[in-house]
Structures are given as C-alpha cells and as structure tokens.
C-alpha cells in the first residue's frame, strides 16, 4: 500500500503536489480575502452568513481550481475540472456547468475513443448494452470528467482524485488551524 | 487407431515422469493397452457387472454397493489416484487386501481437496467404503483395463479431469500448462471422445475455480468457450459411448447395473468436479430408482442444464474478445486494489459493488471536508498579509502534529455553520456541491456520527503515509521557506513571484 501511495505521490515531480497546491491555494485565498473584506463579519450575522456562504463557495472553487492547476493536464479529471471552471468563469455561473461539462466531455471523449482498439470498442459496446452498474454511474458523477470514461480509466482517475482530495484536505486543514 | 493416436497423451498420462503426482497402474495398463480389446472389454464389463452384483448382493448393501464398486473401478481404471473413494476406502476400510496394492500406487497421490470433495459424496451415503470392493477389484481391474478404447477414454476423461483437479493443487504453473496443453491436444484431436471432453471441461472448471490467476488464459478461454458445449456433449457422449458397447451386454445381463454404471461413470468422471453434488444426487436417485436405460437417458438432458447453471463463465464468444475481457478485468482488479489501499477500511471489503460504494462514500466525505474547511477558512479573519511565509514554515514544521489532529472537533464546531455551505447558491460550483447538496444532513451525520470514523480523519488513517508526507515536507522545507521569505514583502504578487521562484526551488531542492 505504501509503495503504491508513494509511487502516486512521487509521480508528481518536484515540487510535490501538496506544495504546489498549497501555494496556489494560498494565493487564491489571499485574493479572496482581499477582494471580499469581512470587516463586518461580527456585526450582522445575516449579511455575514451570506458573505460567509459566498466566500465559502469562492474558497471551495479556489481550492479545486488550484488543485486542478497544480495537477495540470496530466489527468483527465484535472483537465475536465479546469475546463469546467474556466468555462464557468467565462460564460456565467448558471449555464456554465452544462456547457463546460459538455465541452470537457467532448474533448475527453474524443481523446478516449481515439485510443480504443477494435476489441476494446466491441467490449465497450457490449458493456454499454449491459449497462454499467449504479456504483459506476455514481462514481462518474463524483469524479470530474468521469462520464466519458470506462470503468478501467475511471478507477485510475478516482485513485488520483482521491489522493489529491486528501492532499487538499490536509493543506486546507493545516491552513485553517494555523491561520488564526 | 485410437490408441495409437492417443498414445502420446496416453503415454503422458501414464508415465510418471511427465506429470508428477500421478501414479498410475502404468505397467499393467500399458501392457493391457497393447492387448487385443474388443472382446475383453465386453468380458471385463460383464465381469464387473456380474461381480459387484454377486458381491453386493451377499452383504445386502444392494445398489449402493454396486455403485460404489463400479465407480471405484472406473476411478481406479482411470489411473487417477485422486478419486478419493479409493483413498477413502484405503483409509477407512480395514480390508486392505492385496488389491489395495494395486490401488495404492495411484492412490498415493490423492489430493486432499478431492478427498474433502468426495467426503461430501461419501457422507451423502453415496460413497461408502465397500469392503467387497477390493477383492473384486483385482479380478475386474485387469480385464477392465484391457479394453483400450474404453480404458483410454476413461483415462483421458476422468484421469485428465480428476488428475487436474488434484494437479491443480499440486502442479506448478508450467506443469499445469503442460497438462492443459496435452489436454487441449487430446480434445482437439479427439473431439468425439466424450470422456476427453468431460475431462477437459472438468479441468477447465477445476482450474478456473481452483487456480485463479493462472496464466493459462488461452487454455482457460478455450475451456470456457468450449466448456458448455463439452459439458453437454460429455453428458451425451459418455452415455453414447458406453451405451452401445454395453447394450449388447445389457441385453444379456441385468439391466440394473448398466444404467447405474452409466451414472456411476458419470459420477466417477465428474465426481471430482464441483458438480459432484448434483451427480451424487442423480446417482443416488438412480440407485433408488433401479430403472433401466430410460432413467439414464431421461436424466441426460437434466445434467447439462444443471451444469450450465453451475458454471460461471458464459457468454464469451470468441477467444480474442474473451482475452481482451480478461485483460480488462485484470486491469480493473489492479486498480481496485490500489483504491483499496487508498480508501481506509476497505481491506475487509471484497467485491466490486461494495468497493465502489465505499469509494463513493469516501470521495463524498472528502468533498464534504473540503466544504467544511473552506467554510472555516471563510469565517476566519483574514490576517494573512504577512503570515503566509510564517504559515508555510510553520506548516511544514507542524505538519506532523497537524496530521494527527482528529477531524471530529473541527466538524462538530463547524456543524452549526455548515448549513451555509450546503445551499447551492452558485451554479458554477453546483456540480461540485451537488454531492453535498444531495446529502444535506447525511454527510454531516456521517462525518460526525457514523462509523465511517476511519474515513473521517483520513490523515489519521494513514500514519505511514503521514510520516512519508512529513518527510517529504521536510525535504521541501528549505525551498518553501525560501519562497515564503522571498515573497515576504509582496504577498499580493504571489502570483508573479511564484514562477521565478520555481526554478530556484528546483535547484535547491
């Protein structure tokens, strides 16, 4: 277990993932802090709640985007996430999801199909006919860019995604614990 | 001639050198094979048929005794010591007469598994140690084995199957491959041999069931692809092959023994397989029925259905596709193993569906944690202007301690405020927050109360990983601290200064 973990961790070249993520996230965080001053946080709970909610969302976005950028284009999920976020920023919040998702899916799906051999396509068709099990569908929803992947690639992406999520949680927790 | 064509394999079957753990009645059998056969076959059959009848009638065991003896004889003749009844007899029966010597050679290598498998049969009142088995075995053995066609077929079928059943346990991969290669040869050459089919099918089933992960993909694919046909063919063919020669004598002899013999032949052939229970049931039914060939024939269509139900592998159309499928499955299993290591608490879980559920739960819990932490960070007062570099250095130093912190206090403290985060305010991140939104309370409860505690502090669950991480933290300590210090006066220009610092980092780290 440790070997596989180490392998996945060290696969990201120096500097390690957490450092890259930490840096990006911190800078994004500072941007957010600067842009949305919480001077009145203690005064009005309602406004502060809204503010806090907004900031929460922004921070969450910042976390995911910084993580995706730290990973780069190496992973399907990071690419999908970057596409989604950039499309969201460009187009608008509401409609961005479908567009970005579609565009990311198209890009990723095309890439995927090109790599498939004849037998894989046959097997994939067979699997499509049978239908994936509900767990696979759920996982595809969870992992960004997972809809266009078969189970094999999906599991690989999930492994990396889980690692990155853990890193994210660790860094964010350390930041949250140390800041105040 | 069949015997000549099958000699290479027959010799392999019977020679101890090629296939280990197979002690056969080599000398007697090989000699017998060379003898002339058609008449001795019938005579052997008649002797077998008559002797058990005579023997069993005496002690009054009746049908059971006959079946026992017939099955035992078939197993014996087939040179497989793995047919445990003999070993069973050997162990349990005190009548280790001289004939046991004839049996002990093949019986010396009985696999324990087949013994256990056969124990079910034995305890099912089907196999009972027959003391009268031994005395008659000798006299029936030689004439029985003199028949080349029957003997060869029997050898091929039950020996191959049974031996591989046992051999599966004891042979290493290369030997198994050799065995299967030979079996494939036999089967490909002699497609009409029901025994061969039975053996191969059994071999396929036994191998696939007992030796998972054996690299004989081709063999297994072939076996799997042909298993169904062979099973059904085997059902018909042994009966076909045995019936015609026996019909003549059936006419002359009692009708009772022949169907029982057929069934016992079935049982003997398939006794080592996993379908032995069905066979035992059928044979026991046959024992009680005491009907003629009708019963055996009526039961012919039934076993194939049961066999197909029992067999797990179906629907593999061609070898290339099945191979690709197998490769894909192995890849998936590898990745599932990696995920199993990543996701805590999945070691005990087996099976794709449960593992997938666990993974999904874990990913959702991680996303919830990100949500919590972002909320916590949002509620924090921003004093980050000059704290960044200090934080970074502190973070690196204290990462170990931080990693040990439990998540529970954090979550419980942020629980009341967590509701904010679960309202999908922005469509941009609705895709991300959907998993949380859909479970507005459940993740909280799960996070705090449920027994996914091992998931919750993911850092706690990875003590070894945390030590690794802390070690790696220290490795980058200098670089990060230098970065932080370099950005001391320009907290806002983090963005700009990050890039030029990267080469520095690389050089120094």
Automatic annotation (TrEMBL), chain A:
The keyword Transferase does not apply. It comes from the Eukaryota. Residues 19-87 form the IBH1-like N-terminal domain. One of its GO terms (biological process) is regulation of DNA-templated transcription. Keywords: Transcription, Transcription regulation. It holds the Pfam family IBH1_N. The keyword tRNA-binding does not apply. InterPro entries: IBH1-like, IBH1_N. Signal peptide: none annotated. This is Transcription factor IBH1-like. It comes from Punica granatum (Pomegranate). The gene is LOC116194406.
From TrEMBL, chain B:
Keywords: DNA-binding, Nucleus, Transcription, Transcription regulation. It is found in: Nucleus. GO terms for molecular function: DNA binding; DNA-binding transcription factor activity; protein dimerization activity. Residues 272-305 have a biased composition (Basic and acidic residues). Residues 94-105 have a biased composition (Low complexity). Its main location: nucleus. PROSITE patterns: BHLH. Residues 316-366 form the BHLH domain. It comes from the Eukaryota. It holds the Pfam family HLH. GO terms for cellular component: nucleus. Residues 90-110, 175-305 are annotated as: Disordered. This is BHLH domain-containing protein. It comes from Punica granatum (Pomegranate).
